[in-house]
Amino acid sequence: xxxxxxxxxxxxxxxxxxxxVERGHVATFATAVTDESPVYRDPxxxxxxxxxxxxxxxxxxxxxxNFGRYPELQPDDQPAGNPVVTALGPLLAKGGLILHGExxxxxxxxxxxxxxxxxxxxxxxxxxxxxxxxxxxFVVVETVWRxxxxxxxxxxxxxxxxxxV
Amino acid sequence: xxxxxxxxEDVTVGDTAPVRHHALTxxxxxxxxxxxxxxxxxxxxxxxAKEAGQPSVFGHGMFSMxxxxxxxxxxxxxxxxxxxxxxxxxxxxxxxxxVTSIVVTSTRIDGDDHxxxxxxxxxxADGEQKVVGTATAVLPTRD
Lengths: 165, 143
Prior knowledge:
Shape of chain A: elongated
Oligomer: heterodimer
Structural class of chain A: alpha+beta
Strand content of chain B: 25-35%
Strand content of chain A: 35-45%
Strand order of the largest sheet of chain B: 1-3-4-5-2
CATH superfamily of chain B: Hotdog Thioesterase
Largest sheet of chain A: 5 strands, antiparallel
Number of helices of chain B: 3
Number of strands of chain B: 5
Distance between the termini of chain B: 19 Å
Radius of gyration of chain B: 17 Å
CATH class of one domain in chain A: Alpha Beta
Shape of chain B: elongated
Number of domains of chain B: 1
Largest interface: A-B, 33 and 33 residues
CATH topology of chain B: Thiol Ester Dehydrase, Chain A
Order of helices and strands of chain A: HEHHHEEEE
CATH class of chain B: Alpha Beta
CATH superfamily of one domain in chain A: Hotdog Thioesterase
Number of strands of chain A: 5
CATH topology of one domain in chain A: Thiol Ester Dehydrase, Chain A
CATH architecture of one domain in chain A: Roll
Largest sheet of chain B: 5 strands, antiparallel
Order of helices and strands of chain B: EHHHEEEE
Strand order of the largest sheet of chain A: 1-3-4-5-2
Radius of gyration of chain A: 18 Å
CATH architecture of chain B: Roll
């Protein structure tokens, strides 16, 4: 993929998902990140911490698209094809590695068990760099998560993936 | 904090959060794979990882960030993180002792919010940085 084609990816949607945040999975995920706090498991502990519900750990928005994504919840107007796959698939076919280079989150409020959230992904940057004889292709995808009912923003996840060959 | 609430008035630039140590095991990676849905075999299949030229399976970057997130919420309180971002610098390996480092870099008031900014990182026992980043949290006040 030429550099100008890469630049054209900027602004393209990567898809929309509607997910339900399930209490059992939140507790399982807290265990996986070695957090044994009762706040992630007991609504009384969450209320005692001043929270409106059982919250999810800070990195949970990265994985929540993989769970509770039931078919009947999904929007009909999905973009055709994922531009990240379009951009990196042919590169990967020629070899090299896909790396997760950077990850960030901003939060308006915690994600809570019971939330029904809609995530909208967009490619916000795409560029290529030569470094120490390696060609690095960077694609940055931002996913904004909103309450499905109100449209209020809950959090934003920004992922920087690198193909290195 | 596990034994109390951190208030804005109690924080000074340069303060450090309690250090969290974690000896990384292959079981951690299997648990994280299942909980995250990330089944890249480089993180759980030793045979495939070696075929790919790796010395062994290695940790998910997001496991490292999650471990750092646990140390972060232990300090600032669950539900108080406003921003959290990292760069993945090095792979983590089973058997390594992973050590968190969290330092307050500024305190500020933005409207009604009492905020602290922090430098956050995860390293092994030799000091090799695995994950490096920043965070912002909103804290309660005493009044």
